Amino acid sequence: MRSVHRATVLFWLVAVAAFVFLIWNSWQTWLANGEPAIVTGYTLAGLMVFLFIFNWRKKLSMVPLGRSAYWTMAHAVFGTLTIAVFFVHTGSFWPNGVYEQVLAVFFYLASLSGILGYWMQRVIPRRLTENGLEVIWERIPYEVAEIRNRAEAIVVESAEKTASDTLPRFYAETLSWYFRRPRYLVSHFFGFQSGRAFIRRETAAISRYLDETERGYLGELEELAHIKNRLDFAWAVNGAAKIWLLFHVPMAAGVLVLMVWHIILVHVYLL
């Protein structure tokens, strides 16, 4: 952990030093009647290529190219540097020209999704550990279906043993909706407890109308509901991570393609 911390400090020192040098070099270029945008532009292009290489580093995890934690931190630090260099290069938040504006949109989307991805990478693993339920994401719908079948079996048994329709009606009107599929996904993603609150509120409300035998069956339903709530959490956060990857990487690739064409146009114009 200390080595990662030292590497983080080193990366930030390098990034700050590089940014200061870039500003100084651009200023000297301007004093010499040169074009600072060429300097900042190629610096920006180099940084973007480096950031995109990170995606290939993840695909080559078996090759000894350094610890993944170092690459992740370098990606975050130099991604921040890239945003700063972008503003230095453009000189404004919203550039002139339709093509430049399209490039800016792709860049902003890639940057914002990158910031979100960094937050997710820092928060989600810890929250999954706290959730205490390890399950393959693709298996979750089957696990939910199995829990729903067990819940329905409990309700049927309750009706047969107690000759009361209170718990079956409660299940049909309230819990069947909850057990049907993953619920409260946005709440789970942001770390709220809407699912748990729903379970406690609804079971507490119906408990007063049940006898001791029915309360035993209700307790079994509540236990299944809490297990399903943990599955919902895993479905929400892992699903968000997969969706993020399908968004961030194409945005970054789009920036690279538009950047190459931008460089070609600039040199054609200068010639």
From TrEMBL:
- Which positions, given as ranges, span the membrane? 7-24, 36-56, 68-89, 101-120, 243-270
Q: Which UniProt keywords apply?
A: Membrane, Transmembrane, Transmembrane helix
Name the source's superkingdom: Bacteria
Q: What is this protein called?
A: Uncharacterized protein
Q: Which organism encodes this protein? A: Minwuia thermotolerans
